[in-house]
């Protein structure tokens, strides 16, 4: 088996899990920093380890366009290429084809799109998405899905769900790599019946893990919070559950409460580059003049490299002076914040006090995050 | 005494030295990476330590404009502000006033200039330069000098040398900080007699260290190489000798051969940001397509983080994808290259084979650096 997953403890619907991969064991609930182009922007693998990251996500769409999966395979595979020896999950490329490509047309056969880099017309089929990810050599690969935009018609949502199921079957049929697990993605938008039938159909195909797609694509927090508890129930209890592209700390806590296990999001690094820091008491904008003379770290109880060595005043200076070290140090803190949050989440589940932990955390963030 | 300097060994005119400062002991000949705005661009202090850096340079001009020396003093001084616990040298700000300011007028009293950030009219006197550096709290401060451009008339060169001596006297008279050493700067352009008289006048004032200014400002390599041996002789033998703003590896070797001890230059980080790597066999342009499929590191015998973990192919990808990690990893390698070069220089002097070492190194670089 390419992965082994076991639920070690539950607390309500929240689960503490253990995920064994070809590149090591990680605990869930788990947050994966995003390394779009085979690098988490601005951070070295050493810095990611020190921040507590255990598993990364990389984007198939970007890597197949540049530098290409054959090149990465030739240079020893994605792990060796980017110098990361822990597990890596790659997405299928579908979401980026729909959101980043210059144009995109979807047929039952494949998605035909234009590269956002040079306009080349390309095709991404379920088989191609599997083949690219097999070349990359990630520990977990994702089936190509169709993610209809939030607000699409019922007919379009049904089409997307049907195609997603059919593409999952085709992906499974062509997937060969034994040291890589292939996860399926449940679509269906905000329609509970559609989600349920999509989840049932995919569960019958017996994938080693399942993801929820179509969240964090324009729906409101209320929409997500409303249907997530029900949708999570549709997923097999003995398989890891991955909520793609989510999200803010409060969204992750809400999803953990529903039994979700894995998360990824660009927020820690994107906000870090934009001088915004996550803290247990809400976010801090380091460009604000109020930080100019502040000798305290971002968070006094944070053990990250940034908080152990630098003041808010210094970080403020770095951003005003347009120095690269500002984005670097803040990305590092934000990744450490997310990883520490997940460590606290796991500890709370272990001690069966997750609901209380989540409620206290949310109250501290509510007004400022 | 704010510093202690001893020459441990000589090999021809080359010297192996030991420099004790308030923030630790460093060996010379020594290269100082440049942390213009209280950060060596793109690198954390941890990364600098790991690359072998022992002492940094920071720019008084930039720091007095932003964030201001009072703020840095309030936040605990420059070392604490930038998280660097080793020794720091600050320049006087003069060179930047002459080269970066929007306008500049020099009188015997002071340099009056316009900030390149917002056009504000400001004054930098010898007393002000000392006062700023005392607030910053560097281990070594520099006297304000006048650096006439290469090619200035003899009269202008004489004026600059005269003013530099007078300003050194005034700097010395107002310098109070006991944990900081104040170095004087010898000017005089390419005129050996003027250099000699400037050096004699400054030596009579008994500074703990001496710098050579006015190199690396437009003169040719031949100009520098021609007069450096003679000029170095004018400097007191028992004091550290610092060649400001120099330079390329071959220039540093030539200067060490003349008895110079300290160097600084932005080349390792600037070239690193521009995808150019220093190696023992010349420079490598990592954007070049020839590196695309190259699985070897920049230098196979380099122990820096970059060379231990990443291929030229990966670095090529990072630069083509405009990823921050490219400049970071290449700056790190280049700083490590310079620090390792200086370690080899010291070892060669220790074993009295510096001339041979320099000659072999230069032959390997000659065609490609």
Notes on the structure:
The structure is a homodimer of 369-residue chains. Chain A is an alpha/beta fold and 369 residues long. Chain A folds into two domains: 4-265, TIM Barrel, CATH 3.20.20; 267-369, no CATH class. Chain A has 15 helices and 16 strands. In chain A, the strands form five sheets. A six-stranded parallel beta sheet of chain A has the order 4-14-13-12-11-10. The longest helix of chain A is centred in the C-terminal third of the chain and has 26 residues, at 325-350. Chain A is globular. The relative contact order of chain A is 0.13. The mean pLDDT of chain A is 95. The A-B interface holds A 37-39, 41-46, 62, 66-67, 71, 74-76, 81-83, 292-293, 295, 305, 309-311, 313-314, 316-318, 320-321, 323-325, 327-329 and B 37-39, 41-46, 62, 66-67, 71, 74-76, 81-83, 292-293, 295, 305, 309-311, 313-314, 316-318, 320-321, 323-325, 327-329.
Q: What's this model, at a glance?
A:
With 369 residues, chain A is an alpha/beta fold.
What is the topology, as strand order, of the major beta sheet of chain A?
A: 4-14-13-12-11-10
CATH fold-level assignment of the largest domain in chain A: TIM Barrel
Number of domains of chain A: 2
Summarize the amount of helix of chain A as a percent range. Answer: 40-55%
Oligomer: homodimer
Identify the CATH class of the largest domain in chain A.
Answer: Alpha Beta
Largest interface: A-B, 39 and 39 residues
CATH superfamily of the largest domain in chain A: Queuine tRNA-ribosyltransferase-like
What is the tally of helical segments of chain A? 15
> What is the CATH architecture descriptor of the largest domain in chain A?
Alpha-Beta Barrel
Low-confidence stretches of chain A: none
Q: In total, how many beta strands of chain A? A: 16
| Integer average pLDDT of chain A | 95
Which structural class do the helices and strands of chain A define?
alpha/beta
The general outline of chain A is: globular
Q: How many whole angstroms does the radius of gyration of chain A measure?
A: 20 Å
